[in-house]
Amino acid sequence: MDIRIVKSAAPVKEPPSGPLGFGQLFTDHMFVMEYDAPQGWHDARIVPYAPLPLPPAAAVFHYGAEVFEGLKAYRTAEGQVQLFRPMDNMRRMQDSAERIGLPAFDADDAMQALRALVDLDRRFVPAADGTSLYLRPFLIATDPSLGIHTIEHALFCIIASPSGSYYKEGIDPVRIMIETADVRAVRGGTGYAKCGGN
């Protein structure tokens, strides 16, 4: 897959340091690839991080037609950047997309995009203990029409966020609750898919 790269004209001078929080800061760039039924996946590009222009009728807003993943890149003590089981995440995302009725994508192409984005923004991978570059691939339906139909337009994107722990206090004080009345997943449902509402 050919990936066009447009570098940010206003890059962040210094990656953030100190407490990072989770998913609140973003790198200079993001990956975007478009889908339409006649052409399939096309126009793969890494561009400056920016809002996505979407029609108000886009299926993602009205039917939750979207899937996502979450994975991390870590900086080793030697300064190298490593991803943790990224192909497993891409395969799970393929399964989720199939379940929701979104267009199929090539996991190898997604891996290529992921690696290219991490390589371009590698200076944002933090080195402190308990930190990582959180990567969020997502696939959304952008069909500009209401009503149930086969998805014919979509966007596949990857954004990246230098992050600390998901929980402000770290992992130690996390409390859990056992639910006895409501369920998230039922047989034949979407519980295994990482999608809107799950």
UniProtKB/TrEMBL annotation:
Statement: the UniProt record of this protein carries the keyword Transferase: yes
Annotated keywords: Aminotransferase, Pyridoxal phosphate, Transferase
Family as reported in the entry's similarity comment: Belongs to the class-IV pyridoxal-phosphate-dependent aminotransferase family.
GO biological process: branched-chain amino acid metabolic process
Cofactor: pyridoxal 5'-phosphate
Name of this chain's protein: Aminotransferase class IV
InterPro entries with a match to the protein in the record: Aminotransferase-like, B_amino_transII, BCAT-like_N
GO molecular function, one term: branched-chain-amino-acid transaminase activity
